[in-house]
Amino acid sequence: MPGQGLPLHVATLLTGLLECLGFAGVLFGWASLVFVFKTEHYFEELCEPNAGLLGNATGQDVLPVSPPDCRAQDERFSLIFTVASFMNNFMTFPTGYIFDRFKTTVARLIAIFLYTCATLIIAFTSAGSAVLLFLAMPMLTVGGILFLITNLQVGNLFGKHRSTIITLYNGAFDSSSAVFLIIKLLYEQGISLRASFIFLSVCSAWHVGRTFLLMPRGQIPYPLPPNYSYGLCSGDSAREKKETAESKMMDLQSQEFLSPKEEIPGPGQLEEPRSFWSYVFSRRFAWHLVWLSVIQLWHYLFIGTLNSLLTNLANDDRALVSSYTNAFAITQFFGVFCAPWNGLLMDRLKQKYQKEAKKTGSSASAAALSSAVPSLALTSLLCLAFALCASVPVLPLQYITFILQVISRSFLYGGNAAFLTLAFPAEHFGKLFGVAMALSAIVSLLQFPIFTLIRGPLQNNPFYVNLTLVLVTLLTFVHPFLLRRECREKGAPPAAP
């Protein structure tokens, strides 16, 4: 029986990877798309002539035309990205609830509807109707995050490699930002923006086919029951098998409520079930939220302001800005290769610590949780290095910044999802994932006032803002420290920071 299900599991894994890679997180290629929008004169009416140089002109001599002051245009694009990235996170809670309550098929059909509408709106916008981007980009990103949420459960099909699959999908989500680079390159070769987005709209037929042929109608349970089937293999008895699988899942979870992982906890470790809100207000979740919010703010601020940053550092050299934008987008593609390192690290450490826990009689759940400590600490360290490089106003140094940013970001989201699966019960994953992303979205709204502060009162000098954010980044190291201490108190093997 397992042999019969393996081809279906692999097909689900690979098509889900392609879906996340091609569609889920395209918003974060925003810098490439802004370059195209500026070429198409979107919001160009907000640019103002440089009054200082015009005042020097005489009736006899004509001075070279100065580049116009386009701060208002940059602010408009930054605001669109701020709204879209906010919706990307904030809407994760209601979409997580929809996924938990109405299951996979309903969630995916909503995602397909939003995504198709968004791509069609972008396809038929022009400079005169550019304000529609405020509607289209949030719809695009909410549809994309629903694709990711419904695909994360595929990790349940692969047992001990669950964390690796989850981080792989999050890496594919990061790498999908390269799609907008492809659109930019095609645009430079004569393929219109409209044609590219119409193609993305047509791809919705593939999403629909995958929804009904390669995904479950309900949810993939964990641990996976024997002879579990879905999609193509479910046949006429799909509902009966789903109910059987769900009942087995409930039985298993009632036996090991604190550890919905591969291994069964040792004797004497059972506790009464806790409510969802008790986990939300726990210290563990609160510090994880701080960790996620601070690191995410750095990434959103960097991506949302990259075009204006490069324009300033390159002294308005359009060809140089295009070159660095391409370099940034290319490095984003490699997120899919970076993210699994985090998952492999967590899976290997979890197996190691749980073997030691069995020998010593320690808590298996605490041993599994301790495997997240090095991942959290390493992600904080990567973010700190990325933040320091991004704060130095030297254009060639931004190549290193791009590399550190993509590694840090792929570790962030993969580690976030994997940590939530390890630290909290499986039946609350969708809601907790949504709450974490929604609350961190509120923090991410700071990116627009920060951008306005830099462009206005600070006169394009971000030194003091960057220094403050670097100091705040140091707070993220508290989370792995407290988690390490908690695991030690529960008798888990010590995790190396």
From TrEMBL:
The keyword Cell wall biogenesis/degradation does not apply. GO terms for molecular function: transmembrane transporter activity. It comes from the Eukaryota. One of its GO terms (cellular component) is membrane. It is found in: Membrane. The chain crosses the membrane at residues 12-37, 77-99, 106-124, 130-154, 166-187, 285-303, 323-345, 366-393, 399-420, 432-451, 463-483. It is a multi-pass membrane protein. Keywords: Membrane, Transmembrane, Transmembrane helix. Its main location: membrane. InterPro entries: MFS (IPR011701), MFS_trans_sf (IPR036259), SLC43A3 (IPR027197). Pfam families: MFS_1 (PF07690). This is Solute carrier family 43 member 3. It comes from Molossus molossus (Pallas' mastiff bat).
